[in-house]
Design a protein that fits this description.
Helix content: 40-55%
Oligomer: single chain
Strand content: 5-15%
Number of helices: 8
Largest sheet: 3 strands, antiparallel
Order of helices and strands: HHHHHEEEHHH
Radius of gyration: 17 Å
Distance between the termini: 14 Å
Length: 214
């Protein structure tokens, strides 16, 4: 079944925007719980999935809400960890040109990203997404992913659930989003994803499930 991916950095690597305590709770408790529940649901159904992406898409097609929620949250969180880095940067190359075309520059993208996240009611996720070379900022509710949209390639995502930021920013979602975008966004991942959206290379995927024991 599916494993909980390790963080790609130390628990304190994103401090002070996201502190060590938040990362332990968020990864070791919240994310782990989604993976555990998903594996139980799949085992009870006798499923032998080839990928988490396939699980999400099939669950959406069948309207299986419990699987949608837990599989979606497992996928979103794993992508979220990789969408962050302790090394602040900026988009380069073709992605930088696309940001200029869509948003008038990095500041315009930041404004759009923060506005979408602040305006999203309740829990969910805010995304920078590519449809081919076209960029947009969207949000999804609860555990929804972008996977059912076959033409969408996520470049970045930020978690809007309160457990992602409350210990460090309390109820200041706007402050969290501004700090996150300016200091943690992983533009190298975004560039690789943008290349994949244009047909160069494979897009990010959740680690494949472990084979069943003989």
């Amino acid at each position: 079944m599916f494993k909980l991916p390790d963080l790609p950095y130390a628990y304190d690597a994103l401090s002070p925007v996201i502190g060590e305590t938040t990362m332990h709770i968020h990864h070791d408790k919240h994310h782990a719980r989604y993976v555990d529940v998903l594996n139980t649901l799949l085992a009870d159904a006798g499923a032998a999935p080839q990928s988490l992406e396939a699980v999400v898409r099939e669950a959406v097609a069948k309207g299986e809400r419990k699987v949608i929620n837990n599989a979606g949250q497992a996928w979103n969180h794993a992508f979220f960890w990789d969408a962050m880095t302790g090394q602040a940067g900026a988009p380069e190359g073709d992605l930088a040109k696309a940001v200029d075309a869509a948003f008038g520059g990095q500041d315009g993208l930041k404004d759009a990203f923060v506005k979408e996240g602040v305006g999203h009611f309740g829990s969910g996720w805010v995304w920078l997404v590519a449809h081919g070379e076209a960029l947009s900022v969207v949000s999804t509710h609860d555990g929804e992913t972008l996977l059912p949209d076959a033409g969408a390639t996520p470049l970045l995502v930020c978690d809007l659930w309160e457990h992602a930021y409350y210990l460090d920013h309390q109820n200041n979602r706007e402050g969290f989003l501004k700090a996150w975008f300016g200091q943690l966004a992983n533009w190298r991942l975004a560039e690789a994803q943008f290349a994949a959206a244009k047909g160069a290379g494979a897009a990010w995927a959740y680690p494949a499930p472990a084979p069943k024991a003989a």
